[in-house]
Amino acid sequence: MKILIIAPHGDDEVLGCGGIISRYVDEGHKVDLCIVTRPHTPNWSEKYIKDREKEIEKICKIFKINNIKILKFKAALLDEVNHLEMNFEIREVINASKPDEVFIPFYGDLHKDHRIVSESCLVALRPIEYKIKRIFMYETLSETEWGYQPFKPNVYIDITKYIENKLKSMKYYSKELKPTPHPRSLEGIRSLARKRGSEVNIMYAEAFILIREII
After folding, report:
1. How many Å is the maximal CA-CA distance in the chain?
2. Are 116 and 155 in contact (CB under 8 A)?
3. What is the per-residue pLDDT across 78-110, written as a single tens digit (0 to 9) for each?
4. Which residues pair with 70 in a beta bridge?
5. Among 79, 124, 108, 106, which residue's Cα sits nearest to residue 211?
6. Which domain holds residue 156?
């Protein structure tokens, strides 16, 4: 099976899907990653930008990502982008990957980039050319729970064997981690996985909203 994770920013893929990426790869599936935006000057320093590139490289090695595509759009400025262009770019990634399952950000997240990417993904994923078997939305700590729409998962994936790998991977995005009790802390990440697991009587889980399934 082929899986495609679409993340607005580098670190969203770990926060939302770090456990299932580890699980899918361990089970012999191929996982592709698309990061839609890049940090840019003057909002970020040249050092930060170079460090982020190295962090993403390390993450891809840890997760054994099959293929990664980083689009050219500027982080935190997606509301200035021509949506037709973004829809096309994401569609091109989907056509190249030819995934069976696609994971996209939740459309109710606080961060505007997340909402815009989610909408563009849904446009690009219309079952016209390449039909995806399953489309899921994932949650991102400190974006989803602080947004204006509730995240109501209907799919839970057991990541008990992979929670430590998820936490280890997030450490590479050290600039994005916050001290406890911030939700985007290592303890916050573990706590959410434990909560989602408890909702279905397992130890640790990642939770998703199934948007469409074709059988």
Report:
1. 47
2. no
3. 999 999 999 999 999 999 999 999 999 999 999
4. 35
5. 106
6. 2-213
